[in-house]
Write a sequence for this structure.
């Protein structure tokens, strides 16, 4: 079957009013309900794909949160709009796309020089906590997020149009989130900029201390003629979060194969169940809340497959059990998910994963296999399962383009690169703090603690304040938890054994593994930048957000030349370097930025 | 001094100029060539350019003669490489050689007059420059502004994918016995009797008979480390890259202002519109020129200025998303001429640098000229204008490590 909307009367979050809205999609009328994203309307109308890649292969939703650019279409004449992020508006004219054919004054501070101005990027658990403690420190805060409502992916809110009477049914810690949201957004020193994307960070002149200027665009996701703003904060807190890291496998580009976060976002944010025969595969405890969200939405979950064998997971978690006990919220949450899976008779299997997806135009079968601890396939253990959707998450990729644009140093860990911070959440750049998943994957409670510490110090709060002792202690526990999580759910080094020469690595440009192997082993073209230009891996619309870490790992293993020495003016090629942090339309780029007066917040979320 | 393997040559820099020089010498025979680079091959200035092989932006003079020689040699070299060892045909396909032609558009009356005079001089120097009337321009470029005063078509202009072009040249050099050493930074000189006999590097000393400075924007600093400073400085350029589009731009289309900007020496920002498509479907939008040392910070006002100028040429692109911006450094010499030849102050040291924004196109002609000078044979074009001991190269104070 196809994805379907939970019936309004059966919605556990309360009966929805379901006000219809009418779109024209490629000339055909399509009906949705107010509040849905365009992707939500299309999926609920039974379409799993609407774009064609360069090869003519069909594409639909993959990441579900605006990272992969797979679902782009043309809305009211504007091309390349991410369907998963754009709210559908009655009368929208949608056309699907194919690639087959061919200076700055202080926004902040003007007139109110005495008040310290902090900009917080990202309104998820870390960003919201940072904004709250910045306000507590007495400073003014501008909180911005690309989404229409705060909460991030963790507390992804239902659209207001859904009129949910019991939205908390879908969330942990909802009441506390609601209190915090109202306190922060309703605060007179808080400016809330919804639907605001940071497209560039402009570092100050060498030798000038202080954070970068923040260049923003405000308006519907991937809209046109969105007004530009330039913010000049005294301190900047970066809390952009992370997205699923999905390792490539044959068939992962088929419609119906979703990053696990997409399945969760569609269930929690759109009330859409992606299928009746869904297989979840990958690694980490995040698979459990995704399974819970799918079950709650009425999807049929066949199994949850954890790639790591029990011994790896047990060793990672059990080494210092008292550290786990100090994350009581997380332990209770996990116990709850486990009970839910048992109630629905969903098996949780360890040491097994999906190594191939098959189907004509969309996923119809998954091949699963038993894995050794290094994730190599045990020969003969392959089983083919009929599925109508597949959700995959092997790890998380922190969203590092903004920290990199600010010039923050990164820290390499066995699970990937993260922003290096000191004991105060301060990055290597003066005035730039980092909080949440970009410093390490540890879940929402740890992100909140980091945000609280970063926000307080960014806001000029006393670093010796007694209350900080507890915050720092909790933050340290969060870091220990992150280390445990990484040890219990590592990515096995033998995963490239799943790949075939024709397996797509870069989804945008359809670069396959064979092309990557050929180029990375040619001496004259082995430098990372040159490999990228030659294979086009990472040059497409998502700008290597999905394939970047994978390509970097594969080319290093293939014997590509070691990373060059950093030189003046020549930063080392890095998979997360995206000086334009978000796409900006040429007309918007040519326009002059506005300079808002921060004392007159122009956007206030209704706190009703 | 010759060894049994021939003259030992160390090419300093594995960008496109170094790659082309290594190839010419390797093919000439009698040379044992090693290419060294601080980073990886072709990953600095070469990987950050547009891949121009242009005659249209050059007025009569030595640089145009070098451009014309290069334009003739490019297809010959690619054909020769394609006939080489297995895999070479693929390397040549990756070069994306595209003799698409250039179209220069003036949007003011003064610009039109200047463009017509410039083209008349070019024609006298053997450049094909064909006037386009409004209908012909609309047929050639349907999306270009109707608001123009003159347009010229330069059928000889071509484009390559620059990193792939360098890889193809270097790959051919390697196939002919050249050695590549990456991640090897030159720290200083070893001399004997006033002659450069070896370079000190992070990987130990490298002895040779000839050293060719092909370090692009870093060649001023490198030459200073070797004790023979040349005034080559970085001049930054930025490029915008759009999301993939259906075919929209068919030639290299640029504003007549571009010629003025290329020839200017101003330190402050110069922008002029240069618009062209790539094989991947993206449109590249340039260009800017700024002398700010090796400052690689993103400057939104520069990107805005490029966007505004590009929209003057192609107003219909306003709704197109820009997905990436990148910048690089061009090797700038105050008189805008490359530096090619032996350094009279330090025997054993040669230079092949200073091509500013034209190095991709001029690399191959530069290598041919250098080969002839090394051999002592008569070059096809007069090398004197490019000589090292001219005032623009040696006259200015030597750039120190701090000031470049």
């Amino acid at each position: 079957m196809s994805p379907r909307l939970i019936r309004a009367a059966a919605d556990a979050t309360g009966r929805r009013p379901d006000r219809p809205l009418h779109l024209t999609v490629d000339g055909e009328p399509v009906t949705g309900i107010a509040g849905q994203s365009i992707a939500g309307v299309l999926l609920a109308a039974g379409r799993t794909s609407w774009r064609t890649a360069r090869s003519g292969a069909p594409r639909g939703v993959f990441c579900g949160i605006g990272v992969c650019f797979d679902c782009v279409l043309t809305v009211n004449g504007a091309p390349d709009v991410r369907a998963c992020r754009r709210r559908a508006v009655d009368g929208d004219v949608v056309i699907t796309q194919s690639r087959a054919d061919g200076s700055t004054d202080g926004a902040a501070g003007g007139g109110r020089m005495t008040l310290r101005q902090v900009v917080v990027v990202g309104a998820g658990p870390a960003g919201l906590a940072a904004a709250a403690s910045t306000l507590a420190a007495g400073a003014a805060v501008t909180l911005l997020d690309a989404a229409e409502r705060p909460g991030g992916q963790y507390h992804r809110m239902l659209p207001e149009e859904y009129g949910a009477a019991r939205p908390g049914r879908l969330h942990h810690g909802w009441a506390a989130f609601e209190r915090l949201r109202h306190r922060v957004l309703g605060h007179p020193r808080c400016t809330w900029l919804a639907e605001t994307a940071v497209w560039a960070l402009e570092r100050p002149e060498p030798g000038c201390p202080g954070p970068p200027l923040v260049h923003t665009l405000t308006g519907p996701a991937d809209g046109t003629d969105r007004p530009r703003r330039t913010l000049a904060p005294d301190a900047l807190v970066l809390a952009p979060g992370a997205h699923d890291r999905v390792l490539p496998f044959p068939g992962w580009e088929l419609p119906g194969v979703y990053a696990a976060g997409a399945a969760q976002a569609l269930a929690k944010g759109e009330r859409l169940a992606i299928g009746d025969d869904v297989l979840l595969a990958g690694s980490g405890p995040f698979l459990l809340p995704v399974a819970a969200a799918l079950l709650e939405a009425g999807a049929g979950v066949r199994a949850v497959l954890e790639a790591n064998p029990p011994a790896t997971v047990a060793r990672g978690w059990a080494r210092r059990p008292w550290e786990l006990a100090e994350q009581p919220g997380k332990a209770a949450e996990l116990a709850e998910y486990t009970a839910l899976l048992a109630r629905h008779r969903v098996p949780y299997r360890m040491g097994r994963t999906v190594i191939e997806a098959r189907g004509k135009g969309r996923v119809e079968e998954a091949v699963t296999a038993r894995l050794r601890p290094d994730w190599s396939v045990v020969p003969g253990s392959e089983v083919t399962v009929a599925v109508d959707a597949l959700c995959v998450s092997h790890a998380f990729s922190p969203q590092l383009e903004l920290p990199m644009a600010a010039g923050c140093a990164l820290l390499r860990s066995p699970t990937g690169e993260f922003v290096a911070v000191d004991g105060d959440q301060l990055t290597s750049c003066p005035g730039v703090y980092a909080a949440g998943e970009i410093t390490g994957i540890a879940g929402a409670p740890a992100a909140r603690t980091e945000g609280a510490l970063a926000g307080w110090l960014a806001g000029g709060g006393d670093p010796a304040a007694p209350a900080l002792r507890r915050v720092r202690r909790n933050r340290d526990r969060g870091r220990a938890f992150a280390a445990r999580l990484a040890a219990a759910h590592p990515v096995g080094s033998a995963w490239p054994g799943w790949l075939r020469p024709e397996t797509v690595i870069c989804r945008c440009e359809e670069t396959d593994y064979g092309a990557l192997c050929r180029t990375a082993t040619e001496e004259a073209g082995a430098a990372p930048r040159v490999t990228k230009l030659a294979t086009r891996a990472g040059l497409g619309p998502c700008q290597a957000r999905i394939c970047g870490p994978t390509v970097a790992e594969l080319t290093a293993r293939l014997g590509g030349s070691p990373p060059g020495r950093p030189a003046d003016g020549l930063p080392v090629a890095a998979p997360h370097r995206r000086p334009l942090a978000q796409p900006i339309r040429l007309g918007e780029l040519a326009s002059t930025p506005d300079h808002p007066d921060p004392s007159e917040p122009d956007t206030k979320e209704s706190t009703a | 001094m010759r060894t049994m393997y021939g003259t030992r040559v160390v090419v300093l820099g594995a960008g496109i100029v170094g790659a082309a020089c290594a190839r010419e010498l390797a093919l000439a025979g009698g040379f044992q060539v090693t290419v060294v680079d601080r980073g990886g091959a072709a990953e600095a200035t070469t990987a950050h350019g547009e891949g121009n092989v242009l005659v249209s932006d050059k007025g009569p003079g030595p640089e145009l003669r070098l451009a014309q020689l290069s334009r003739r040699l490019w297809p010959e070299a690619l054909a020769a490489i394609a006939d080489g060892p297995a895999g070479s045909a693929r390397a040549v396909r990756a070069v994306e050689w595209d003799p698409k032609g250039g179209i220069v558009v003036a949007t003011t009356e003064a610009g039109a007059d200047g463009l017509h005079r410039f083209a008349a001089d070019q024609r006298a120097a053997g450049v094909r420059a064909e006037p386009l009337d409004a209908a012909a321009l609309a047929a050639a470029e349907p999306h270009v502004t109707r608001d123009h005063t003159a347009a010229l078509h330069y059928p000889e202009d071509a484009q390559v994918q620059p990193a792939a072009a360098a890889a193809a040249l270097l790959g051919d050099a390697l196939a002919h016995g050249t050695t590549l050493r990456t991640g090897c930074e030159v720290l200083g000189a070893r001399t004997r009797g006033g002659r450069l006999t070896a370079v000190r590097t992070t990987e130990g000393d490298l002895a040779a008979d000839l050293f060719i400075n092909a370090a692009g924007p870093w060649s001023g600093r490198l030459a200073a480390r070797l004790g023979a400073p040349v005034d080559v400085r970085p001049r930054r350029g930025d490029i915008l890259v759009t999301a993939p589009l259906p075919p929209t731009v068919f030639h290299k289309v640029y504003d007549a202002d571009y010629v003025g900007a290329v020839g200017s020496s101003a330190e402050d920002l110069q922008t002029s519109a240069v618009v062209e498509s790539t094989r991947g479907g993206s449109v590249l939008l340039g260009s800017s020129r700024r002398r700010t040392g090796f400052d690689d910070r993103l400057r939104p006002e520069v990107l805005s200025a490029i966007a505004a100028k590009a929209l003057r040429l192609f107003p219909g692109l306003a709704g197109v998303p820009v997905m990436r911006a990148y910048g690089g450094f061009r090797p700038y010499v105050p008189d805008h001429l490359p530096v090619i030849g032996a350094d009279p102050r330090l025997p054993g040291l040669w230079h092949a640098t200073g091509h500013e924004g034209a190095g991709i196109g001029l690399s191959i002609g530069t290598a041919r000229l250098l080969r002839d000078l090394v051999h002592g044979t008569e070059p096809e074009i007069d090398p004197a204008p490019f000589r090292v001991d001219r005032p623009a190269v040696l006259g200015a104070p030597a750039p120190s490590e701090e000031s470049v």
The radius of gyration of chain B is 21 Å.
